[in-house]
Amino acid sequence: MLRLDTFLPYQLSVTSNAVSSAIARAYETLFGLRIPEWRLITILAEADGVSQQALVARTEMDKMTVSRAAQALVARGLVTRVPHGTDKRSHALTLSGEGRALYQQIAPKALELEERLLNKLGEREIEQLKKTLAKLKAASQALR
């Protein structure tokens, strides 16, 4: 019999929601950002000139969520749109100076939150968790 509270996909979902909710409150309070927005800022800090399609693939968020987050960041002046290659309909996103400055504030806070989240685990447990999550992600992609 299926029991939801012992069903691993459910446990992963509930845990992910709990972690995301805690982090979302911190980013909303400190930076006025929703989770999709800070994810885009972080990705753009790693590599400028990323298309929205590439952001969808990288974040595994749906197109509409990425589009709304990008629009909000452009409206705030944190991100700029630049033409993407020869396709006039496609744009690449890049962080503005203000966006980079905000990222410099976000990154240390993100690392602090991660540290607080994982402080009950030992180094070996953290490494094993990361390996296990990577395997589960690969397995879930194979199911698609």
TrEMBL record:
The lineage of its organism: Bacteria, Pseudomonadati, Pseudomonadota, Alphaproteobacteria, Sphingomonadales. The keyword Kinase does not apply. Keywords: DNA-binding, Transcription, Transcription regulation. PANTHER family: HTH-TYPE TRANSCRIPTIONAL REGULATOR PCHR (PTHR35790). InterPro entries: HTH_MarR-typ, Metal_resp_HTH_trans_reg, Tscrpt_reg_MarR-type_CS, WH-like_DNA-bd_sf, WH_DNA-bd_sf. Transmembrane segments: none annotated. SMART domains: HTH_MARR (SM00347). This is MarR family winged helix-turn-helix transcriptional regulator. It comes from the Bacteria. Residues 5-138 form the HTH marR-type domain. Gene3D superfamilies: Winged helix-like DNA-binding domain superfamily/Winged helix DNA-binding domain (1.10.10.10).
